[in-house]
Amino acid sequence: MNIIKALNPYNYRTVVSFNFDKVTNQEYWDKRILDFYYKLQNIKIHNSLIGLRVNINEANEFMLKLNIKEFILEEVERFYNECKKIEKIESFYYEINEKIFHIKGNESINIMINDIICPITPNAFIQANHIMGNILYSKLAELVLPNKNLIVYGRNSFHIASQINKKFENILCINPCKIAFDSGINMMKINNFSWNIDNSKFGLVTNISNSTTDTTIIMSPGRSGYSYFDKINLEKFRGKQILYITCNEESLKRDIKNNFNIKNNILIELFPGTKYNEHIIELELINISYI
């Protein structure tokens, strides 16, 4: 198994959420966010303000999403103005009762996934350790073979497709998360990508069943695995390149059972000091009598 270690202690989380009354795991934050957090200690935090999500990109632009339990305009404005004195706040939102509102600056900030522009908004999917995330996508691109068709599933399906776009004639991105799906559409527009899209979680089952032999399948179902894996026609995997991306070995085992051989396993150390690592698994369907 090829293990790729994290580069240095400050290439950890460039996306951080914390409650003002309880903060943990600061040692895993990007140094720029950690510095910002220390500066926040000098700001008076009103009790209507619960917590904060912080995103930062390569240009040191911050996007903030302020969680509040009571909307007091003066306190929200005051917090924003104080933060602007500290760092370059390009985008500012607040969230109340699970609803998000844009209030200041741009609606998104752009990150670069290697050489691809990717706009992000609050709660949009992004590899929290962005530097190691880019290495993950680069290693995936090296492993993927050219083919006619690509089916790619997951919250980061658009990100994956962007890295291997030139290897396929037809691409289908299946993304069941509305926020990630909308961000992906914006990324397609900015980069002039022409892909087919589907926001149905069950769509992976249908499209694999309808796929032809000249199709590559990439699944990135998240920590909990793919809940409809047992409904996939396994015979449709035969002879195809199949890649499964996961940070949870247990959900991987539950999905693939004893039906596949593991041809390749590249492990990316996204968060040193934690139990979670990202695996790029290449699978091969074995001969099973009951298929």
Question: Can you tag this structure with a few keywords?
Answer:
8-stranded mixed sheet, 5-stranded mixed sheet, 32% strand, 2 domains, alpha/beta, 26% helix, Transcription Regulator spoIIAA, 291 residues, Rossmann fold
What global shape is seen?
Answer: elongated
Percent in helix: 25-40%
Total E-strand runs? 15
Separation of the first and last Cα atoms = 29 Å
CATH topology of the largest domain: Rossmann fold
CATH architecture of the largest domain: 3-Layer(aba) Sandwich
CATH class of the largest domain: Alpha Beta
Strand content: 25-35%
Estimate the mean pLDDT confidence. Answer: 93
Stretches with pLDDT under 50, minimum 5 residues: none
List the helices and strands and how they pair.
Blueprint: E1 2-4, E2 15-19, H1 31-40, E3 49-56, E4 62-68, H2 73-86, E5 89-96, E6 99-105, E7 109-113, E8 116-120, H3 130-143, E9 147-154, H4 157-164, E10 168-174, H5 178-191, E11 196-198, H6 203-209, E12 215-220, E13 242-246, H7 249-256, E14 260-268, E15 278-285
Parallel strand pairs: 1-14, 4-5, 9-10, 9-12, 10-11, 12-13
Antiparallel strand pairs: 2-3, 3-4, 5-6, 7-8, 13-15, 14-15
